[in-house]
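Workshop exercise sheet. Pairs work together: one partner reads the sequence aloud, the other fills in the structure field after running the prediction. Swap roles for the next sheet.
Pair: D.N. / O.F.
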Amino acid sequence: MLGPIRQDSNLARDMHDWFNLVALLPVIYLNLRNWCCVTFSVSLLKNTILEKSVVGMWHGEVFQEFWWTTLAYFILDILWVILLPDCVKSPGVILKHHLATVGYIFIPKLRPEHGWLMGACMIVEVNTWFLIARRALNKRGDRMFTTGVTFWKSIRTATISGCFYLSWFVIRLVIYPYLLIVITREWIKESNRVGTPLNLIAITPVMQCVFIFLNMKWTVDLIRSKLKGRGASKGL
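Structure field:
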């Protein structure tokens, strides 16, 4: 990994970045409000986090607020990318991803008992925030702790970069594949309950596989972009 990448001049991208940095905060905050952190912490301390049901950590007290805020965010972002496609590197991929996500979140809207599914998947927006922040707050691609770079900027860059890579690995490459196991179990339970595998929950393992594939693709793209060096980039 070769460090920060210098960004080219792109006003559309910069405006889109700051929109996301602001708009994602209420989405992330409301999502976290729906989880029982105490249950999670106790399970983590007892090394039983993988044994503890994800469903059991979800209380969904502000699910409706979370759902509508998330829907509004994705609709606004879809419109932004359609009107200003230069604001992202791969507008086609982003639009497909957002449209699939919008369709996905209608399952917990129709079946609120599966709100945990939306909450668990939307944890990925924590990583998205750090991805955008590392670009927006260091457009020149300054290397940490080098001549001309202030100590505080170096600390800020190191913190954001560290959180980005850590959350990328934990959320996209660990939590998402793990969720496929949980989701498949829920689909089997629903199939047994209604007497057929063709039910509303049947789409969830398929969609989760799509998102896992995209995460793997973006991981490869990330590694390749880092190995290319410090050239100008439009960003992910």
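Discussion prompt: The helical segments are 11-33, 37-45, 63-83, 91-110, 115-122, 124-136, 151-194, 203-227. What would you look at next?
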